[in-house]
């Protein structure tokens, strides 16, 4: 076999890298060292301090600058003669169209979110350019190869859906710290500092929803002449005291649960405490404010260690202080704030509020550091895993350039060896015949065509579920809706009117049996949706009032400990479903109704290579892949066993 | 932002001798003399039931200049029975017992992986690295980013085109070389990666260094040395009273090997949600590679045998490590035959094609360097933090089949 190192295909290769973050920095370095002469790199981010521990091409002095450009300059210092073209832009920008992608021999992804990954996958399919995809979380990582017609595409497999929690768990019956975080972040923070007009489920659901919500609306308004401190205490007493009392009045709800404890500010704090207590604190407060760029409640209270778990009193003080600082120092922003993990004061407020609620419900308290990780969906990242994954990406890229199909592998980096292996290569799978992306398999949508509007369909299905940015929707040859910059004025009006219409009343009515054709012009991706009319939906389980099936996506029922592997909006890299498999074995009892698909679909690799879990496989199409070829090595008895309880425990340990 | 924070490597302050009141005062004076701002984090955590000391710590924190209030609080302090112990802890505190705000911000993402405790241990660890080729450059980058206390580099070679090939720490700019060694040039690049890590260079022949030299380190990584030198250093480390983690790493073409000797190693790991303490025994290099091939399990990586054959060849011919070319293949194959006969092992376990690959390219394959340097970095971090199963005691990677395999090659039964 020819040596990978001396592959002549490298010299003529033109590659596109998407992402110049954790994996991206390592990848660019390894590509440059390996002799790749022409590298294009897209990244929309600028450099942050928390990147510096692993994105080694960046320095403190680069903070705030575009990653793609700084990475290029750093590489040219040790390999001056290669071409690197940086783009400080979103890969979803329309200029990166199919023609743009066609100029490359291979596309290498070092991305941090599901949405962009799906977008690149579709463009690669449309442009017929091979894709090497990657992801890391902590010590876990994986690299996969996606070549049209040869191996499965990125969307052939179920992906973990963004997490959501049943509303009542968040509003009334939290049992885990993450529930308190979601409550503090999505409900309380938004209610106090965000858009006041937004629907908000803040009120505790109890027997008399109506009266409590009326009460609540009054409670959240700051009264005329009301002192900021008094207002804060009133909010405190309302959400941690009154609302809990109201909830407790519904005794039925607490039969099989531990009752929460109402907490009032007077019981936790003495009257004097919220004021600065004495000279010592004041001096340390000014001391710290001078060194911290942003307003911070913990600084003005003299609290320092992010890793400390504060007690109820400390959290209560941070809560009141943060509330006050928002209303006094950042008054102009109040009303349109959204939670941002890099907003110190917002993190402090959410962490404190979540901890007070946790105390009320008997849930263990957490440090600000931990709370920030949960609230910000921060993905754990280290340099070593990124370096390993980058090396593996380049190895696969060379095989792809050589069209050495038989040698393609998807590789997992494991934290604990399985079959003596820390790096485990596995044969890639054939394209999934039921994949709606690469096999154009029609989807089915159950929807109440007499109640849902076209807008609901566009927002909840086309954008959220199908990941399209520039959609065009047709019934037969009739256009119902499209997005674009060059539309005629009357068309724009027409579409705007259509958006507000109920499906069955559209100019070309959409009813049971209609086939909708949905297309994304930029991705050059089309899919057909067959509509089924359905009258009723379950409020808790199907809050969207529509059910899309045939989609290779896991149901969105959340599991509490899951956020660490989410493809969330953090700066780092999350990974696709495969590496999350280990958890499934251990936590399966935590998954409630409707999640079996996650379990069986994600476990689909097991039956292919081991015989341990036959019962998991049932007739689901998604699992009927054949392997591209037999394993070649004589001693290859590779068994993919992803049931290491340790992998899961490791994750828990980080979250404690 | 502009305040100076005591950094872990500012050693003079670290271990004061608190035998009396005057020493305590001298210690406090020395702290202020540095002009550093005093930050005492979590003072209360190890002073669980002493409200008095909390007050003292608050005053210490808020006082910027040296003034009388310190004297009054300290005199009170000294009357406290366990003062020496607590102040000693305070000293340790300055030595990175608690992470500074800067450290927490910089290391945020990795603290979420291995915890604040492991990060503190990392910042107090000292690493010796010998042989600056591509794989070791990758390894150094990884541990400098991770935030170890110090890294000491040994490599007296001058820069050649070969030295440049997979090493991104050497700029291809002859004007910066100026007669300096590979280690010195690599050191410059490494320092830029993380200003919190102290990077230094030690000149001289590693095999001539004595035990007191190795005693300064917690981890020793040897690359590009003959098997004889590796064994020698391994034994020197083993003779020290403290445990030094010993590693060798080498990359040939697109294959690599890591050897680990943690001696008698205690660590903790999470198992089913509980922390369990484990202990494992490692053989030294000499003992590991003298295990008769016949008693090894059948499926031991072929790379293990191939590496030993090449090692023996270089040793017998008096070559430096890596000084072997494709022209040596016939002689190498002859040696393989001899060794296999002595060891009663079928020659098919050391395929010719593999040996050919390994001696063909003197240059390392950069993606393989990234992978092996990454695994080694991870292992060293594990060993310093004392968390998680370490690999025992060989690791092999071959970019051709993509497998990264652990082999336990010791006479003792594998611990599980």
What's the alpha carbon Rg of chain B, rounded to whole Å? 25 Å
In whole angstroms, the N-to-C terminal distance of chain B is 48 Å
Number of domains of chain A: 3
Report the biggest beta sheet of chain A as strand number plus sense, adding barrel if it closes: 8 strands, mixed
The outline of chain A comes out as globular
Q: Helical proportion of chain A?
A: 25-40%
Which percent range fits the helix content of chain B?
40-55%
CATH class of the largest domain in chain A: Alpha Beta
Q: How many strands of chain A?
A: 14
Number of helices of chain B: 16
Gyration radius of chain A, to the nearest Å?
A: 27 Å
Domain Ubiquitin-activating enzyme SCCH (chain A): 332-372
Pathway (chain A): Protein modification; protein sumoylation
GO molecular function, one term (chain A): transferase activity
Biased composition (Basic and acidic residues) (chain A): 214-224, 605-614
Furnish the topology, listing elements before pairings:
The complex is a heterodimer of chains A (656) and B (416).
Chain A: E1 14-18, H1 22-34, E2 38-42, H2 67-78, E3 83-87, H3 98-102, E4 106-109, H4 114-127, E5 131-137, E6 140-146, H5 167-171, H6 177-193, H7 209-220, H8 228-249, H9 265-268, H10 278-291, H11 297-300, H12 312-329, H13 344-360, H14 368-375, H15 383-401, E7 410-418, E8 421-426, E9 443-447, H16 454-463, E10 471-475, E11 478-482, H17 489-499, E12 515-520, E13 525-533, E14 546-549, H18 581-587, H19 596-602, H20 605-609, H21 645-655
Parallel strand pairs in A: 1-2, 1-4, 2-3, 4-5, 9-13
Antiparallel strand pairs in A: 5-6, 6-7, 7-8, 9-14, 10-11, 10-12, 12-13
Chain B: H1 21-33, H2 51-62, H3 68-79, H4 83-97, H5 101-106, H6 108-123, E1 126-130, H7 134-146, E2 150-154, H8 161-164, H9 182-193, E3 198-201, H10 211-214, E4 219-222, H11 227-239, E5 245-252, E6 255-261, E7 264-271, E8 274-281, H12 285-289, H13 302-317, H14 329-342, H15 352-360, H16 366-385, E9 394-398, E10 403-407
Helix pairs in contact in B: 2-3, 7-9, 7-16, 13-14, 13-15
């Amino acid at each position: 076999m020819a040596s990978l190192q001396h592959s002549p295909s490298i010299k003529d290769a033109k590659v596109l890298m998407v992402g110049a973050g954790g994996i991206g920095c390592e990848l660019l370095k390894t590509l440059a060292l390996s002799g790749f002469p022409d590298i294009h790199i897209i990244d929309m981010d600028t450099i942050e301090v928390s990147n510096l521990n692993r994105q080694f091409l960046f320095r403190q002095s680069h903070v705030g600058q575009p990653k793609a450009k700084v990475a290029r300059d750093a590489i040219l210092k040790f390999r001056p003669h290669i071409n690197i073209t940086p783009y400080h832009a979103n890969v979803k920008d329309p200029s990166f169209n199919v023609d743009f992608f066609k100029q490359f021999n291979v596309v290498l992804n070092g991305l941090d979110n599901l949405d962009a990954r799906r977008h690149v996958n579709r463009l690669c399919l449309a442009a017929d350019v091979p894709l090497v995809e990657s992801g890391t979380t902590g010590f876990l990582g994986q690299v996969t190869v996606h070549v049209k017609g040869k191996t499965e595409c990125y969307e052939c497999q179920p992906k973990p859906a963004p997490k959501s929690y049943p509303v009542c768990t968040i509003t009334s019956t939290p049992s885990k710290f993450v529930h308190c975080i979601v409550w503090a972040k999505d409900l309380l923070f938004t209610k106090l500092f965000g858009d006041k007009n937004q629907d908000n489920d803040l009120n505790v659901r109890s027997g008399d929803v109506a009266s409590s919500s009326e009460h609540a609306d009054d409670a959240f308004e700051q009264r005329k002449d009301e002192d900021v401190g008094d207002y804060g205490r009133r909010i405190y007493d309302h959400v941690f005291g009154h609302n809990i009392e109201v909830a407790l009045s519904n005794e039925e709800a607490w039969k099989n649960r531990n009752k929460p404890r109402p907490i009032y500010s007077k019981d936790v704090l003495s009257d004097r405490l919220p004021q600065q207590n004495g000279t010592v604190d004041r001096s340390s407060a000014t001391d710290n404010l001078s060194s911290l760029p942003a307003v911070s409640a913990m600084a003005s209270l003299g609290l320092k260690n992010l890793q400390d778990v504060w007690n109820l009193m400390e959290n209560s003080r941070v809560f009141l202080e943060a509330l006050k600082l928002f209303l006094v120092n950042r008054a102009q922003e109040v009303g349109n704030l959204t939670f941002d993990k890099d907003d110190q004061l917002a993190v402090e407020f959410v962490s404190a509020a979540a901890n007070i609620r946790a105390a009320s419900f008997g849930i263990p308290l957490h440090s600000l550091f931990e709370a920030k990780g949960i609230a910000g969906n921060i993905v754990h990242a280290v340099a070593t895993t990124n370096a390993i994954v980058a090396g593996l990406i380049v190895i696969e890229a060379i095989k792809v350039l050589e069209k050495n199909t038989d040698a393609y592998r998807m590789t997992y980096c494991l934290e604990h060896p399985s079959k003596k292996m820390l790096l485990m290569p596995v044969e890639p799978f054939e394209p999934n015949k039921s994949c709606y992306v690469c096999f154009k398999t029609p989807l089915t949508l159950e929807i109440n065509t007499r109640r849902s509007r076209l807008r609901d369909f566009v927002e909840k299905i086309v954008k959220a579920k199908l990941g399209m940015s520039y959609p065009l929707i047709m019934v037969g040859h009739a256009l119902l809706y499209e997005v674009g910059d060059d539309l005629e004025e009357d068309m724009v009006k027409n579409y705007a009117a259509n958006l507000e219409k109920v499906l069955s009343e559209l100019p070309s009515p959409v009813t049971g049996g209609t086939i909708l054709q949905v297309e994304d012009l930029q991705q050059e991706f089309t899919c057909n949706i067959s509509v089924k009319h359905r009258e009723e939906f379950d409020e808790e389980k199907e809050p969207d009032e529509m059910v899309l099936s045939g989609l290779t996506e896991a149901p969105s029922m959340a599991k509490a400990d899951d956020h660490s592997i989410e493809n969330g909006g953090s700066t780092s890299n999350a990974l696709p479903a495969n590496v999350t498999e280990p958890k499934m074995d251990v936590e399966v009892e935590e998954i409630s109704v409707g999640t079996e698909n996650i379990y069986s679909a994600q476990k689909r690799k097991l039956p292919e290579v081991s015989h341990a879990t036959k019962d998991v496989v049932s007739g689901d199409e998604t699992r009927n892949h054949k392997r591209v070829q037999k394993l070649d090595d004589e001693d290859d008895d590779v068994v993919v066993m992803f049931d290491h309880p340790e992998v899961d425990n490791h994750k828990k340990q980080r979250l404690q | 932002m502009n305040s100076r924070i005591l950094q872990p490597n500012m050693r003079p302050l670290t271990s004061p001798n608190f035998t009396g009141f005057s020493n305590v005062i001298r210690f406090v004076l020395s702290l202020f003399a540095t002009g550093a701002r005093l930050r005492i984090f979590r003072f209360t955590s190890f002073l669980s039931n002493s409200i008095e000391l909390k007050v003292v710590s608050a005053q210490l924190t808020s006082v910027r200049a040296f003034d009388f209030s310190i004297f009054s609080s300290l005199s009170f302090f000294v009357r406290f029975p366990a003062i020496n112990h607590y102040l000693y802890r305070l000293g340790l505190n300055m030595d990175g017992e608690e992470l500074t705000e800067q450290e927490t911000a910089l290391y945020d993402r990795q603290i979420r992986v291995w915890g604040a405790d492991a990060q503190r241990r990392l910042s107090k660890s000292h690493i010796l690295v010998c042989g600056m080729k591509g794989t070791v450059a990758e390894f150094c980058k990884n541990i400098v980013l991770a935030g170890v206390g110090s890294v000491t580099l040994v490599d007296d070679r001058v820069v050649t085109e070969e030295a440049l090939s997979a090493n991104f720490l050497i700029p291809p700019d002859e004007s910066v070389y100026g007669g300096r060694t590979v280690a010195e040039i690599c050191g410059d690049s490494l320092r830029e990666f993380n200003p919190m890590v102290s990077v230094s260079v030690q000149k001289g022949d590693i095999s001539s260094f004595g035990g007191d030299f190795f005693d300064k380190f917690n981890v020793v990584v040897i690359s590009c040395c003959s098997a004889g030198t590796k064994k020698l250093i391994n034994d020197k480390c083993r003779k020290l009273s403290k445990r030094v983690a010993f590693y060798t790493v080498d990359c040939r073409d697109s294959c690599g090997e890591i050897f680990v000797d943690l001696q008698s190693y205690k660590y903790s790991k999470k198992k089913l949600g509980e922390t369990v303490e484990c202990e494992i025994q490692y053989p030294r290099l000499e003992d590991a590679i003298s295990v008769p091939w016949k008693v090894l399990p059948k499926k031991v990586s072929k790379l293990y045998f191939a590496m030993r054959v090449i090692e023996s060849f270089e040793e017998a011919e008096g070559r430096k490590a890596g000084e072997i070319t494709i022209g040596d293949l016939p002689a190498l194959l002859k040696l393989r035959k001899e060794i296999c006969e002595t060891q009663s092992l079928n020659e098919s376990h050391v395929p010719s094609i593999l040996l050919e690959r390994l001696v063909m390219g003197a240059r390392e394959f950069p993606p393989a360097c990234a992978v092996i340097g990454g695994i080694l970095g991870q292992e060293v971090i594990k060993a310093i933090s004392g968390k998680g199963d370490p690999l025992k005691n060989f690791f092999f990677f071959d970019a051709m089949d993509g497998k990264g395999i652990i082999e336990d090659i010791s006479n003792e039964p594998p611990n599980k």
